[in-house]
Structure formats: structure tokens, C-alpha cells
Amino acid sequence: MTALAAAAPAALDTGDTAWLLAASALVLLMAPGLALFYGGMVRSKSVLNMMMMTFGSLAVITVLWVLVGYSLAFGDDLGGGLLGDPAQYAGLGQLMSPDSNGDSTVPLILFAVFQGLFCVITGALVSGAIADRARFGAWLVFVAVWTLLVYAPVAHWVFDFSSGDHVGGWLANRVGLVDFAGGTAVEICSGGSALALALVLGHRVGFGKDPMRPHNLTLVMLGAGLLWFGWFGFNAGSALGADQAAAVVFTTTLVAGAAGALGWLVLERLRDGHATSLGAASGMVAGLVAITPSCGSLSPVGAIVMGAAAGVVCAWAVGLKYRFGYDDSLDVVGVHLVGGLVGTFGIGLLATAAAPTGVDGLLYGGGVDQLGRQLLGGGVVLVYAFVVSGIIGIVVDKLLGFRIDEEHEVSGIDLVVHAETAYDLHATAGARSAGHGILGPFTQQREEPRP
């Protein structure tokens, strides 16, 4: 331990490193939190498949990020601020030595892991739009290609800042986009990708006719709580230090989530006559989505306004899928895309130079310049994610078949794809179950097809 400490560069800060280690663990916790959140929102016959799509994303993206993803996102720019050098940090072996950290106060290999977990959550978010009807193997292929062709380039544009001889991405360095923790690279990117996939796969059987309510709101609330907890690592961890900026971001993240829940509930109560637990969880997530890009740019009061606005706007936006006819199963578009747009564009209005990013929005005397930068950045990421994700989805569908058979969708994707069910509600005798093949006793638990 003493020898390692002595070998570390003087710039390395143990407090900053400890905080980023904890923040990375918090972001990792968001993956099972999202699995519970999404798992509770689907019907009981597909809850395991929904959770597996999140855990599958965690496995595939983590490996790819180490092999080449981080280098694509944060390697030296290949030209035009569009993509990093895929060979520079391939495998992350170059970041094992303390000498690789340069002037950074945290180990760069830890920063690489932290950023990789952002990619994990972004990819897992996309899966919610195609719940109940996607082949698991095809999903894993999609999310692998998507990581390399969609997320890594966007992360380079938004998160890779130029320093010294290192040239970063064009949105952060040339346009001047402000995105503290991922309103564009995470939220808008996942929402645009989700919309494309929802269109490629089409409607679920019975969409708009049969009730498709969440099967377990207890899981939804538990998942929402874990997401909120993990979000502090997501946002405050992006300060990359245990300092004043992290404390400000921690505060704005807390109040925006609370305000988002209140905004959604108020609209729900006025519109529908009920304030629901699903509305509280969804509103909280909407507030957190909106504060993700703006957490370092707003005052605490500004964060309340931002969170409440996102709660109201997203509560209205989730109904657009019925008006326009796309089947976004778990409202990824309505919450993450719309909430990301609210947070990204809202910086151009509500940002204050007193916050860590030091930018004034229109309402604080900053003029329309920053608003224009935010509009350009958000729009470019949306179009790129939508178009490229759509192309990847179409190719995967042509080569592998992305959607499961209609009969299997109706009978239950958990049983057909994974040979498991989430709930064993009926006692079965082992002797009577013998000889039933790979599905065994689970064949007795199939849901009957809808008439």
C-alpha cells in the first residue's frame, strides 16, 4: 500500500478518487434498479425477459466498452470532432499504470469505468420501448452494434473535452453545448433510439385494445427509489471530485426529482382525478432526467422549476403514442426523450453563472446564444440516434428476426425464451412434472392466449 501511494503522481487526489469509486458503484446500482422499475411495469408473463434485457445490456456493453468503446469515445480525435481513435485505449491496458493519469486527480482507468456505466444505463433504457416482443439474442446483437455506432460517437461529441494536445468532440468544444451529466448523450440518445426501435418492431398484439397495465407497482416503486439513489452518483459523480460543484449538483438532483414527482401528480390529479404511485415514480424519473444535463447550471430554485416542468410535460407526452400510433411500451420516449429535451433546452433559459458551469441563460441576462447551442446539440443527437438506431434495428431484423412470433408473444415471452416464469403461484409435484422436456413444470403456468 505504501509503495503504491509513493508511486502515484502528485496530481492524484485520494478524496476525489474515493468519491468517484463510490459514484461508479451508485451508477452500477441503477442497472438492477432499472430492471426492477421496468420489470414491474410490464405484464407478469414478460417480467423476467424485461429484466434480462437490462442485465444483458450490462454484460455486453461492459465488455465492449473495455475492448474498444472507451477508446472510440475518449481517444484522440480522428478528425472533425466526430470519433476517437479506436486503438488508443483498446483493452484499457494503457491506463493500468499510475503514470497514465497525467494531471488528472482521479485514475483514468476509473474514469473509463464510470463512463462505461453511463453507456450501460443508456442502452438498457432503450429496451423499455420494445418490451414484450423482442428476441433476446437479437437485442444483445443490437445493443452491441448500437454501443459502437451510436453511443460511443455521441459520447465523444458531448463528453470528450479538449485539453493540451488532446482534441475532443465537436459539440462540447466547438458548439459550446452544456451537458453536465448526459441529457443529450444519455437521455435524448436513448429516447431517439427507443422511438426508432418501437417503429421497427411495430405494435404489441392488442396495443390500444387490451389492458397492458403494470403487473407489480411495488417493484416499480422500489426500482424508482434505487434509481433516485443511484442518480446521485450519475450526476454528482460527473463533477469528478469531492468538492463544491459536486455538492451543488447533489442538491439540484435531489430537489428536481422531488419537484418532478409533484408536477406529475398535480397534473394527474387535475386531469384524471387520481394521484397514482406509477405517476409518482414516473414524475420523479422525469425530474431526474431533466436535471441530468442541467444539474451543474441551475440554482436550487431553478432545479425545482426544471423538475416540475419536466413532470408536467412528460405526463402529457406519454399519451402521444396513442395519438401518433407508435407502441413505446414503457414510455421511454415520453419520459427520457421529452425530459431530456426539456432539461437540455432549459439550460438556455434557466442557467445561472453562479452555478458550477458558469453559464447564464436567457432569463439571467445571457441572451439567446446558449439557447441556440442547446437547441443545436439536442437536435443533432436526436436525429443521429434515431436514424442510425433505426438502420441497425432494420438490419438486425432482416438478418436475425428482431420480433418474437405472435403466438409466443401472446402465450408469454418469459416461458418461451427463457424457460422460466417470474412467479410460481401453483404448487407442482416433481413426479408429475417428469418427461415434459426443457420447459418441465413451467408448461403448466402458461397464460392462456387472449381471445
From TrEMBL:
Pfam families, per the entry: Ammonium_transp
Which topology term describes how it sits in the membrane? Answer: Multi-pass membrane protein
Segments forming domain Ammonium transporter AmtB-like = 18-423
InterPro entries registered for this protein in UniProt = Ammonium/urea_transptr, Ammonium_transpt, Ammonium_transpt_CS, NH4_transpt_AmtB-like_dom
User: Sorted alphabetically, which Gene3D superfamilies does this protein's record hold?
Assistant: Ammonium transporter AmtB like domains
Q: Does the keyword Transport apply?
A: yes
The answer, when asked if Thylakoid is one of the entry's keywords, is no
Q: Which residues cross the membrane?
A: 18-38, 50-73, 105-126, 138-159, 179-202, 214-234, 246-267, 274-292, 298-320, 332-355, 375-396
Going by the entry's taxonomy, the superkingdom of the source organism is recorded as Bacteria
Q: Where in the cell is it found?
A: Cell membrane; Membrane
NCBIfam families in the record: amt (TIGR00836)
Q: What family is it from?
A: Belongs to the ammonia transporter channel (TC 1.A.11.2) family.
User: Can you name this protein?
Assistant: Ammonium transporter
The organism named in the record is Nocardioides koreensis
Q: What is the lineage of its organism?
A: Bacteria, Bacillati, Actinomycetota, Actinomycetes, Propionibacteriales
